[in-house]
Amino acid sequence: MGGDSIQDTVRDKYGQAALNVVAGKRGGCCGGDGDCDPVTSNLYDPTETAALPHQAVLASLGCGNPTALAELHPGEVVLDLGSGGGIDVLLSARRVGPTGKAYGLDLTDEMLALARENQRQAGIDNVEFLKGDIEQIPLPDATVDVIISNCVINLSADKRKVLAEAFRVLKPGGRFAVSDVVVRGELPAAVRRSMELWVGCVAGALAEEEFKALLAEQGFAAISIEPTRIYRFEDARTLLAGAGLDTEVLAREVGGRVMGAFVRARKPAA
User: Fold this and answer.
1) Tens digit of pLDDT for each residue in 206-229?
2) Torsion-angle region of residue 3: left (phi > 0), alpha (psi -120 to 50) or beta?
3) Is 223 exposed, middle or buried, given 0-12, 13-18 or 19+ CB atoms closer than 10 A?
4) I need a surface site. Which of 52, 115, 123, 133 has the fewest CB within 10 A?
5) Measured CA distances, 76 to 3, 86, 138, 173 (Å)
6) What is this structure's pTM?
């Protein structure tokens, strides 16, 4: 399926997820329906989210907590690729303080509206939400200290372009620090073909070594991938449910190969 079709599917699914949150329901696993516990549960410490609007927490559709691992410092400029309801942007803004800034980039109007309302309720000023595609980041070269993302890069049809854009907007010495779904080994072709699973953060996931190779190709250094949650047999069955596949067979082939991971890299200083 082409890149435009994937993007349209992702936009529609995440737009509906935002509307679900406004209606008081959890958005679901990476834009899917229902509560996909293996991916989205228990990612944030309650002390982190206590001061945030409830809808920002409901709209958390990620697979990790990049703000806890990115080592943000006061005065830094942070960009969240695929910022959704804004939880990671708001947490980042608090960490970088009033002398820093946090940008959120999202292509879905409903998510942007939700994020801006969450920002208003949180009373955080050093935040700006931008509409755009993570494959064409609407910021000038060398303007960002840290790029974060939470389970979004796997949704892109052109990950090489995403990483090239990330490298472009980072300042020399800037850091790439994202949470994403990563695969060890091969996934069954039926999983890769499923758009429902693509939007559910499984089918579009890069293999671990491919992710490292693409980062290196763009010029990144100090590349590492750290597993934060490995999805086992029962988790895989939950992830595959509702996709019209033979979940018992596929869960045995997928379980243990799919993981939430923290991906780190750095743009060389010179």
Assistant:
1) 889 999 999 999 999 999 999 888
2) alpha
3) middle
4) 123
5) 33, 18, 18, 12
6) 0.80
